[in-house]
Amino acid sequence: MPHIQTREHEGFYVLEGEVSFTVDQKEIIAPQGTFLNIPPNVIHSFKNNTNQLAKILVILAPGGLENLFVEVGDRVSDPTIPPPPMSEEKMKKFVDIMSDYGVEIKHH
Questions:
Q1: Which domains does the chain have, with CATH numbers?
Q2: Are 15 and 78 in contact (CB under 8 A)?
Q3: What is the pTM for the complete model shown?
Q4: pLDDT (tens digit, 9 = 90+) per residue, 50-61?
C-alpha cells in the first residue's frame, strides 16, 4: 500500500530473495544485496512478487516507528517459515494507528 513516513528516513537492505519497490511511481526490482533509502515524505510501497521467501532489514532514523510493528505484528518463532497473510482485523488496526506514528496512506 503506497504510504509516506513524515518523520523517518527508511532504509531497506534485501537480505534474501527479491522485493519489488515503487518509489515516487518508479518501480525498482531489488534482488539480494540491494539497499534503498527512502527519505521522509516520499511515496513508496514494496511487495514480494515472487514465490520465494524474501527477507529485508529495515533501518529507521530516527527511531520510534518500529513500535508500530511491535504493536500490530506477531512474534516470529521460525524465520524460515513464510508468514501468514495479515488478517482483516490486524490490517484495520494497522491502518487505524498509522497516523499515531506519522505514517500516511497515499493513493495515486
A1: 3-105 (2.60.120.10)
A2: no
A3: 0.83
A4: 999 899 999 999
Tell me: the pLDDT tens digits for 33-50? 999 999 999 999 999 999
Q: Report residue 9 as a C-alpha cell.
A: 528516513
Place of cell 516470529: 76
Give the contacts of 72 (CB within 8 A, at least 6 positions apart): 90, 93, 94, 97
Per-residue CA distances from 70 to 1, 66, 76, 77 (Å): 19, 6, 11, 15
Strands 9-16 and 3-5: unpaired
Tell me how long the chain is: 108
